[in-house]
TrEMBL record:
Gene name in the database record: pta
Pathway, per record: Metabolic intermediate biosynthesis; acetyl-CoA biosynthesis; acetyl-CoA from acetate: step 2/2
Keyword match Lipoprotein: no
Domain Phosphate acetyl/butaryl transferase as annotated: residue spans: 3-326
Source lineage: Bacteria, Candidatus Aerophobota
Protein name: Phosphate acetyltransferase
UniProt keyword Transferase, yes or no: yes
Known catalytic reactions: acetyl-CoA + phosphate = acetyl phosphate + CoA
A GO term for molecular function: phosphate acetyltransferase activity
Lineage top rank: taxon: Bacteria
Keywords, sorted A to Z: Acyltransferase, Transferase
Family according to the record: Belongs to the phosphate acetyltransferase and butyryltransferase family.
InterPro entries associated with the record: P_Ac_Bu_trans (IPR012147), P_AcTrfase (IPR004614), P_AcTrfase_dom1 (IPR042113), P_AcTrfase_dom2 (IPR042112), Phos_Acetyltrans/Butyryltrans (IPR050500), PTA_PTB (IPR002505)
Length: 340
């Protein structure tokens, strides 16, 4: 909980506007009200104003400080239509097309972020990750040089001797099923950059495999070895190693036996998994068997902050991700350039 409180404290220093496309969801409504009460964010809820007001009344919640926009009404707003037109820059654009697209809350929320009305978007309580990604890629877009969006989890364990006093970052445990070597590099470098800004760590990046230092010969190992080599070429300033087995990446005694010289082996704080199977299984096992606390998935690679919720997310999960999204926006120069 200490890490979450730290994010909340940082968010309170400079709260930002955060848009929630699923504003009619009871959990979102409660989290938005708490965000205002705690001074973490200025929430925008998207949805039917009457339905949201009635639900708030039934829950005995005050909507003071919470702004509501109805995409079915706001989609006709010339400001948003014209801004969307400047994004598309194609001959097939028409106001009717824009209206139809912006009636969808995920698209409207993404446009609010892109045009600077909000610093970030949080969705996924009632929509699959694929829908959140689709709207974000269409309207917010990917950062220059990044070919794929990805995600990471912050894992807070009780094993204080690993990572950063027990805290580790797992990537990518939510988005890319079977990334290529080149895509693993994108995932690793984007994660390292975000971890440095968000957590203040010196990244020590381990590309994980079932092999350590080419001891096994297999195409799956080759993929990881190539990814580590490419990552070192693209970011020679980062501490990167691979292929490494999980124990060699985390435990100094094992690293000494398996790896000759490495500034990462036995000390890794960022673990890059070879595919979604490995990453997703690992984070859930650590979460439930080791009683670890997880924060995420935290989406990355987009021009501006977007985050995805589990559809089983609780109010406190949403509030925590709100604080993280605000902190990311505080660090985001793209957002600062919008004048908000």
């Amino acid at each position: 909980m200490f890490l979450l409180e730290e994010f909340k404290d940082r968010a309170k220093r400079n709260p930002k506007a955060i848009v929630f496309p699923e504003g009619e969801d009871e959990r979102i409504l409660k989290a938005a009200v708490k965000a205002v009460r705690e001074g973490i964010a200025f929430p925008y809820l998207l949805g039917d104003k009457d339905k949201i007001a009635l639900k708030a009344k039934d829950l005995n919640l005050s909507l003071d400080g919470v702004k509501i926009k109805d995409p079915k009404v706001e989609c006709k707003n010339e400001k948003y239509i014209n801004f969307y037109h400047t994004l598309r820059k194609d001959s097939f654009f028409s106001p009717k097309m824009a209206e139809a697209l912006l009636r969808k809350p995920l698209n409207f929320g993404a446009l609010m972020v892109r045009c600077g009305d909000a610093a970030g978007m949080i969705a996924g309580a009632a929509n699959p990750t694929s829908s959140v990604l689709k709207s974000s890629m269409l309207i917010i877009g990917l950062q220059k040089g990044i070919k794929i969006p990805s995600s990471f989890f912050i894992m807070v364990t009780k094993k204080t001797e690993v990572g950063e006093k027990g805290t580790l970052v797992f990537a990518d445990a939510a988005v890319n099923p079977d990334p290529t070597s080149e895509e693993l590099v994108d995932i690793a470098l984007t994660t390292a950059n975000n971890v440095k800004k968000l957590l203040g760590w010196q990244p020590r990046v381990a590309f994980l495999s079932f092999s350590t230092k080419k001891r096994a010969s297999h195409p799956l190992v080759d993929k990881v070895i190539r990814a580590a080599e490419l990552a070192r070429q693209r970011a020679p300033y980062l501490l990167i190693d691979g292929d490494l087995q999980a124990d060699a990446a985390l435990i100094p005694e094992v690293a000494k036996r398996k790896v000759k010289e490495s500034k990462v082996a036995g000390r890794a704080n960022i673990l890059i998994f070879p595919n979604l199977d490995a990453a997703n299984i690992a984070y859930k096992l650590v979460q439930y068997l080791a009683d670890a606390t997880s924060y995420g998935p935290i989406l990355q690679g987009f021009n501006l902050p977007v985050n995805d919720l589990s559809r089983g997310a609780k109010v406190e999960d949403i509030l925590g991700l709100t604080a993280i999204t605000v902190v990311r926006a505080q660090e985001d120069k793209n957002y600062e350039n919008t004048g908000n």
